Amino acid sequence: MSDVRTRGQVGDGPLSRAAAFVYTLLVVELLLLLTTLPGLVPLVLLGGDASNLPLVAICLVPVGPAVSAALYALRHQRPDPTDLRPAGLFWRAYRANLPGVLRVWVPTLLWLTVIAVNLANLGAATVPAGWAVPLVLVGVGVTLCGANALVVTSLFTFRTRDVARLALYFLVRTPSVPIGNVVLLAAAAALTAVFSEAVVALLAVVLVWAFLRIGDPMIDKIRKEFIG
């Protein structure tokens, strides 16, 4: 009886809930760093030359599965401080989501790499500077669609082509999601420019948590409209 009372007391206080939230963030951050380390180390060492863009894309491949697992762990972690399992949720999602995430993440990186290489070589190709505008717009569209697809495939089980359709559909259906993601990407880019990729890596779980919260309207509509 005393165990039940203690369990309820531990789970009811705002301080214990805040501590549980911080603990979850710290665990997920450590796992994010661990699973992205094979790509982050060479990424930090790479120079800013345009010829390194394909290598940058390769270094970013581990980021997709890691972010996917973090999204799942943060979404499904129970608020009860006596039942904290962020590491178990992370690894379960990492293993289960890996094939599906790579099917949307790798093509997204491939498209963005092609666009970035073309933008970097517009002058050498003697292409009018105005062509940069449609290339940038396509790049933004691919990025936002890829972001939606990453959330969908992390939290739901759909066929890859259905994930792509939902990702495109919710670019229009929930405009707050792509707008929020643009702001989040701009913040991450600013941190990288002012400091370095290492700072972004250290704040990765905060960015992922914000990414999840931004996607809430899309997630809720998918649950109501597409999950029977």
What's the N-to-C terminus distance? Answer: 40 Å
- The total count of helices amounts to 11
* Outline type: globular
Instruction: Give the low-confidence spans.
Output: 1-10
Mean pLDDT: 89
Largest sheet: none
User: What gyration radius follows from the Cα positions, in whole Å?
Assistant: 19 Å
Q: What's the number of structural domains?
A: 1
Percent strand = under 5%
Number of beta strands:
0
Q: Helical percent range?
A: over 70%
By secondary-structure content and strand pairing, the structural class works out as mainly alpha
Order of helices and strands: HHHHHHHHHHH
List the helices and strands and how they pair.
Elements: H1 2-12, H2 14-45, H3 53-60, H4 63-76, H5 86-120, H6 132-155, H7 160-173, H8 176-194, H9 197-202, H10 204-214, H11 216-225
Helix pairs in contact: 2-3, 2-4, 3-5, 4-5, 4-6, 4-10, 5-6, 6-7, 6-8, 8-10
Brief summary:
The chain has 228 residues and is mainly alpha-helical. It contains 11 helices and no strands.
Describe this structure in words.
With 228 residues, the protein is mostly helical. It has one domain (2-225). The chain is 81% helix and 0% strand. The chain contains eleven helices and no strands. Helix 4 (63-76) packs across helix 6 (132-155) and helix 8 (176-194) runs antiparallel to helix 10 (204-214). The protein is globular and about 65 Å long. The protein starts with a helix and ends with a helix. The model is unreliable at 1-10 (pLDDT under 50).
